[in-house]
TrEMBL record:
The lineage of its organism: Bacteria, Pseudomonadati, Pseudomonadota, Betaproteobacteria, Burkholderiales. Residues 214-370 form the Glycosyl transferase family domain. Its EC number is 2.4.1.-. GO terms for molecular function: glycosyltransferase activity. It comes from the Bacteria. Residues 31-191 form the Glycosyltransferase subfamily 4-like N-terminal domain. One of its GO terms (biological process) is lipopolysaccharide biosynthetic process. Coiled coil: none annotated. This is Alpha-1,3-rhamnosyl/mannosyltransferase. Pfam families: Glyco_transf_4, Glycos_transf_1. Keywords: Glycosyltransferase, Transferase. It is an enzyme of class 2 (transferase). It comes from Duganella violaceipulchra.
Length: 393
């Protein structure tokens, strides 16, 4: 039989959005979307997909891209074209991979930047927070941005999301057909399972004035992360426990965080043993901080997945987390759960993990087992299976 081989019989050629992982566009600071994009870039080739990375350029940044090549239009211009031009007009991307290279089989948008293209588009939508919880987002242009996101979500031929919890949200908020949604749990990189060298870990802790055994939080400071209640819960601990265990908050300031930042700084100035690391961008140092923690506390009110939870599991740190949204699904019983709206509940969980050694050990063992089920290799294989599913329809 002649003709081109089917996609099931050859390596797929996939365009991958790397806008959120491009240092020239992010300043080198990776958020959850950036970690996700970078992980797929690294792990998809071993799963059967040749990856061609692309980024939406910002003014003056196209020449400085180092991860992928620039798409022909910025996202605002491409979006405007989608709104004003007929639906038959697409961004020509499938032939951008190289003059003599085969065209792309599909394009995978790893964030909300989704436009019509001349090949099928698979989109990862992590959550619908701006629509489901507008009170957590900046009011300026919120309505326009929400409308654009809804339109963008409907342009994709298929949607990937990180948890079963998120399916309902995407259906209700974006109007995505549930039959077009696949769940692919995120993962952790192999190095998270390896204990860092004690000297390197200790050097990082000393650099930031940390004593091993602290309570750790990692995440951008924004309302849904619930760091204000975490701070209240820590300050409600017995003084002897606070003296023994610092609260270490790792994360850059985000939306609506000015009041929280002031509270964190004030607690530190009062000598409350609260440490805020706002500029940490080094992966190795972040690994060291997990390794030095006595407990990881994740009080988020809303997560589409919650990568820091799994990073803590892999690092061998006992975890206490919210019983809200996707987090129980991700933890699968490996973490101590609490009501994120209850400061006393959070305080009780922190006290328990600090004082109950047997429970700590059970949480550590269960967390390691759970993390072994959530690797980027597994996520990449499942993602490629979704590609084949889309192309076979």
């Amino acid at each position: 039989m002649s003709g081109a081989p089917s996609t099931a019989a050859r390596m797929l050629r996939v365009g991958l959005s790397t806008t959120t992982a491009e240092p020239a566009l992010t300043g080198g600071r990776l958020d959850g979307m950036g970690v996700y994009s970078r992980a797929l870039l690294e792990h998809l080739p071993q799963a059967g997909a040749e990856v061609v990375p692309f980024s939406f350029p910002s003014p003056g940044a196209a020449e400085r891209l180092t991860v992928g090549r620039a798409l022909p239009l910025s996202f605002p211009l491409a979006t405007l074209g989608n709104l004003l031009l007929p639906s038959s007009v697409h961004m020509n991307v499938s032939r951008l991979a190289g003059k003599d290279a085969p065209p792309l089989d599909l394009f995978h948008a790893t964030d909300y930047r989704i436009v019509r293209m001349d090949c099928p588009v698979v989109a990862t939508l992590h959550d619908a927070v701006p629509i489901a919880h507008p009170e957590w987002c900046k009011p300026r242009l919120r309505g326009l941005k929400n409308w654009l996101q809804i339109q963008a979500a409907r342009r994709a031929q298929h949607v990937i999301t990180g948890s079963h919890y998120s399916i309902r949200e995407l259906v209700e908020c974006f109007g995505v057909d549930e039959r077009k949604i696949s769940v692919v749990h995120h993962g952790v990189r192999p190095e998270w399972f390896e204990a860092p060298a004690p000297e390197a870990r200790d050097a990082t802790l000393a650099r930031y004035g940390l004593n091993a055994g602290y309570f750790l939080f990692v995440g951008t400071l924004q309302p849904r992360k619930n760091v204000g209640r975490l701070l209240e819960a820590y300050l409600a601990l017995p003084p002897v426990l606070r003296a023994a265990r610092q609260l270490v908050i790792v994360g850059a300031p985000g939306w609506l965080s000015d009041e929280l930042v002031a509270q964190i700084k004030a607690a530190g100035q009062r000598g409350e043993n609260v440490i805020w690391l706002s500029q940490l961008t080094d992966d190795a140092q972040l690994h060291h901080l997990y390794a030095g923690a006595g407990a990881f506390i994740f009080p988020s009110l809303h997560e589409g997945f919650g990568l820091p939870l799994v990073e803590a599991f892999a690092s061998g740190v006992p975890v206490a987390t919210s019983n809200a949204t996707s987090l129980p699904e991700v933890a699968q019983g490996a973490a101590l759960e609490f009501d994120p709206l209850s400061v006393p509940d959070i305080t009780a969980a922190m006290t328990t993990l600090a004082r109950d050694d047997a429970l700590r050990q059970r949480c550590i063992a269960a967390g390691r087992r759970r993390a072994l089920e959530l690797t980027w290799d597994a996520a990449a294989r499942r993602t490629v299976a979704v590609y084949h599913q889309v192309l076979s329809n």
